[in-house]
Amino acid sequence: MNDTAARIEELKTSLRLQPHVEGGHYHRFHPSKGAEHVGARHAMTAIHYLLEADECSSWHRVDAEEAWHFVEGEPLELLIYNPVTNRLDRCTLGPLTDGMQAVSVVPAGAWQAARPLGAYALATCLVAPGFQYEGFELLAQDDPLAAHLAGLVPEISF
Asked: What's a Pfam family this protein contains (predicted)?
């Protein structure tokens, strides 16, 4: 096993990452799974999120803002599509060097997808107000928008 593969396995184990429905691996660390919250939605939730080479985060949207924070690995391309303006933004997250930023925020309701630009990328994703599965939607492959986005970003597969 090479150093990169060993690091990926170390991250999966130490961060307790599990397969994510949209692709990649994740672990929700805030609030913890056992945290009681009566009534209103949590103010914020947070996950560690890992994408390996040839994996992607499928097109999806959340009913709250989501901030992606680059942690380690190679750069990550975050794609944000606003259907109202028909605008696609490509953000490259990574170490603060030319053309990269460490953090990007996806507006509530915008479609988003991500892919690593190397062997792997680890990010922390914060959702506020807190993530709820009822406010999460994966883009269906037979949705007309899926064909449009596939034309704009063929690198993200369904």
From this structure: Cupin_5
- Give the distance from CA 3 to its chain's centroid: 24
Q: What is the DSSP string of 75-103?
A: -EEEEEEETTTTEEEEEEESSSSTT-BSE
For 12-31, the pLDDT digits (tens) are: 999 999 999 999 999 999 98
Tokens representing residue 83 in the block: 């259907």
pLDDT in tens, 61-87: 999 999 999 999 999 999 999 988 999
The domain tally of the chain equals 1
Inside any domain, residue 89: yes
